[in-house]
Amino acid sequence: MPFPVRLAGCAALLVALGSTACSPIKTHQGYVIDQELVNSVQPGVDTRDSVMQTLGRPTLTSQFNQGEWYYVSRDSRNYGFSDPKVREQTTIRVRFDAAGNVAAVDKMDKELIASVDTYGKTTPTLGRKRSFFSDLFGNIGTVGAPGAGAPGGGAGQ
């Protein structure tokens, strides 16, 4: 094979590999929303059992009572090794009254997503700061010391 044809083939292969590396990776997480099923849930008519049969098990429930169910759907995409960016998020909130009947059905978009940024590479904690060497050599002399427990891990042997 002549050199220019081989060079053109290698260049075409590199362009093909490079273009596939730049294509976005699209992902879907959570609940798959069927708008007809969501619209069929009516306040004052449906109960917890009928919502469970219609929409299925919720993505999350409220922490302090059984008054709210959340169905979360998120579409995101990223390029290569970058962090995923949320393209669309929809949250369906079903609120129940004390008797277990549906009080309201709300739809929320991605504008209500809370952005929580990390604090550096480590989490600040209370207490004394330990170095690498104190972690490595800190237990020397404590084996078998009073108050350290019985040898072999058993108490009172």
UniProtKB/TrEMBL annotation:
Pfam families: BamE. Residues 30-104 form the Outer membrane protein assembly factor BamE domain. Keywords: Cell outer membrane, Membrane, Signal. Residues 1-21 form the signal peptide. The keyword Signal applies. This is Outer membrane protein assembly factor BamE. The gene is bamE.
